[in-house]
Amino acid sequence: MASITKIGKGKQPPRAIEFVDSTDGGKRKRIRLGVVGLAQAREAKHRIEKLHAAKALNQTPDAETVLWQAGVSDEIHQRIARAGLVDPREPLSAAPMLGEHLSKHLQQRAAELKPSSIERLRQTADKLKATFGSDTPLDQITPDGAKDWRASMLLEGRAEATVRLHCRNAKSIFTDAVERELITRSPFAKLKSAAIAAVRDHYVTGEDAAKLVEACPNRHWRTLFGLMRYGGLRCPSETHGVTWRDVDWEKKRLTVYAPKTDKTRIVPIVSALMPILQDAFDEAADGADKIITLSKNNMHRNFHCIISKAGLVAWPDLFQTLRRSCETDLARTCPQHAVSAWIGHSMKVSEKYYLQLTDDLYDLATESAADSAAVEPRIVSQSPAEPNEPPKRHNEKTSQKPLLAGPCEVLLNEADGNRTRNLRIDSPVSVTC
Hints:
This protein is α+β, with helices and mostly antiparallel strands.
């Protein structure tokens, strides 16, 4: 049996319930109630006796007792739990709910990110809510759950590059929560999320490109294809933004604005692109502004039809592959720093994601090696050595090396004391080093 005791003196001293716990070696235990009325203390005594009896008999307390203990304050419930009569309550989280934090994060990032980046961030947020639930506190999402979330996307058939993108976004979202001191650590911190090199196993050859131009249903698609394959423009962010005012017909250059980087660059109009642009200009309506007026909807589906009509097999990463093929062609004859600037990224990005090793490059290398092997003996025989002198070796410092080749227009700066001379090169040349 339990009893009500007073703790201290006074008109309204704190009360407590004392009982002997037969399930715990006959220990005498006390549960402090604080300053409560006698009726409340008697009710607490009655319910604690019920809880003790249920524990002794290994039974569930009656419904009224369960309801009573569920309604007491956290402090009193914690004291009852310490006495061993009930299980501790799950601690209430002070962290915000996942849905609340995601909404706030997206709203604030919208001011600093491009719309396309916000859309990808929103897709990640939707995946997080679908897995963990919008009403889940941030601090209840564990590293184990984060790893399961990543694995589930792979099991759904998502590409590794796509999964890594969502992991990077999740890291950004939860790192923001850590910086706000809403949680102590990010459960996504150790997930693999570094961008991986693009799959560059397909190159659109000049022959295939000509077939695709012929298969295009109209000048709009021919021009769009030409801007991607021969101009290296991003589709649709750049292709749909260029205007006829951006074309310099005399210098054969095209001014392109890149929303992705918020920068403008000048792209050379190569010989394969010039007639496509000229035909499109001749057929354009008077006063037309935009070069490309095609809808951005269903572009991939329509291009698949063009590829099929050309008798080719569709490749992964449709439009990006055209940009990569364009850069690979330009890099054959032009300095890489110029090519990277024309395509609109750094040389490091070119090397990691764009430049390709095509079959004809291997053929060119083997043919060049064979020619060198055939010519070298003749060079030595033309300058016989004196009887007492060893044969003269080829001097790399005085030999001529082909420095630039192709139709590139570049400026070479040759320092001469305090003077600098600019030399324009408009055709293949050899420069004596």
